[in-house]
Amino acid sequence: MAKQVSGGLREWVIPFAFAFCAGWVIWHGPAYILDFFPHENPSMTAQITELHERKDVSPNMSGLFGGIMDIFDWAALLALPVIGYFGMRSVVYAQMEYPNPPRIDLFALFIGRVAMILIISMTLIMLYEVFLRYVIEAPTLWANELTLWIAGYVFLLSGFYAMQQRCHIRIFIIYDLLPKFGRRICDTISVVLLCLFAFFLVFGSYNQVFGIKFHRWEMFGTAFDPPIPATIQPMILIVVCLVALQSVVNLIADWNKEPVEHDEGDLIDEEELEAIKKSVGAD
Amino acid sequence: MDVGVISIVLVFSLLFLLAIGMPLGLASAVLAALVMIMKFEPTLLTDPMSFGTGILTSNPGTGPLYLLTQKIFDLMTEYVLISVPLFIFMAALLERSGIAKQMYDSLDFWLSRVRGGVAIVTSIMAVLMAAMSGIIGGEVVLLGLIALPQMLRLGYNQNLAIGTICASGSLGTMIPPSIVLIIYGLITETSIKALFTGAFIPGFMLASFIIIYIVVRTQLDPSQAPLPEPKPDDPQGGEKWLMFAGFVSVVAGASSVILVARVGLLTVLGRNDPSVDKFEPPFLGMVGDLPLLLGIIAASAAVIFLVAGRERTTVGWQRGKGLVPPLAVIGIVLGSIYGGVTGITEAAGMGALAVFCIALFRGEASVDLLWVSMMRTLRSTGTIIWVTIGAAALAGAYTLAGGPTYIAQLIIGAEMPTMLVILTMMLILLFMGAFMDWVGIVLLIIPVFLPIVQRLPIEEIGFIGQLSPHHVAIWFGVLFCMNMQVSFLSPPFGPAAFYLKSVAPPHISLTDIFRGFLPFIGVQLLALSVLLLWPSIVTLLL
Question: What is the complex's ipTM, to 2 decimals?
Answer without folding.
Answer: 0.88
